[in-house]
Amino acid sequence: MITNPAVESTMNINALPRIKDDPPAEADPVIARFLDAVWMERGLSPNTLAAYRADLTALTRWLEARRVPVARTARADLLGFIASRVAAGARPRSTARQLSSFRRFFRFMVREGAVSEDPTAQIAMPKIGRSLPRSLTESEVEALLAAPAVADPLGHRDRTMLEVLYATGLRVSELVNLKHSQVNANQGVIRIVGKGNRERLIPLGEEAVRWLADFVQGPRAEILLERQTDYLFPTRRGDRMTRQAFWHIIKRYAKKAGVEKELSPHTLRHAFATHLLNRGADLRVVQMLLGHSDLSTTQIYTHVARERLKELHGQHHPRG
Predict the structure, then answer these.
(1) Is 270 designated active site?
(2) pLDDT-based confidence at 318, cuts 50/70/90?
(3) Is 310 a catalytic residue?
């Protein structure tokens, strides 16, 4: 079920999923107000909100131990907190995430009139290297797609899922939650509501449409028997497949296909974006298809495409 944050009048802060170091204590009232505000404004995921809460609770506890009220937090206090985390072994990426949480929180406090100045304004974000997403070559993708034994209903389902994933660049969570109502086979598109409740229409392509049609007409009913579900890719129990289960499926087929690269659940999403760019697709079109809110997130794929083209250039032109 898709939840529209605009309809939610309040949010149960303590019902959010906990992440590592997330304290069991009830959230501080000012943190609760902040989380409620960003939830209403942006429709953030529960995991993101839980991360905000954990970061801000860690900061407020550190400040309390030094008898510093949150409303009087200074730049030096934040630097002291960050230094203590780094000394305890915090990595740059973790520090950057915490600082991002603090920036959003104190900007909210300034807007609310709770503080007069933003103590994060003069703090630079730590430099972190952006790791390039791992991608597959087109021949490796073909081998992966051919790995399932399609004579078996579950193998046919798996092949269809891989075809749809590679044709659309969906997130794995979007794929396993896909329902019949989201697919328009006549127009060859699927409708996805992604992060922040942003809706996008994605073309499927002839091959994916063919696999979907074949799957729905036969193997899907064999998997379900007499059971009913709206989910397009059910398990033998008639349930929705989990992200973890599909991840195990990808790993199993990659091994069978002889793909030795270290994969991730988003490997085919990365391959989709990289191969589109290799073939001259416009970066903003790829951004729209992937559902990225920020173009800079999509731009990382141009580096992957460039590296791949360098490899090909080196193979065909040894002196290049």
Answers:
(1) no
(2) very low
(3) no
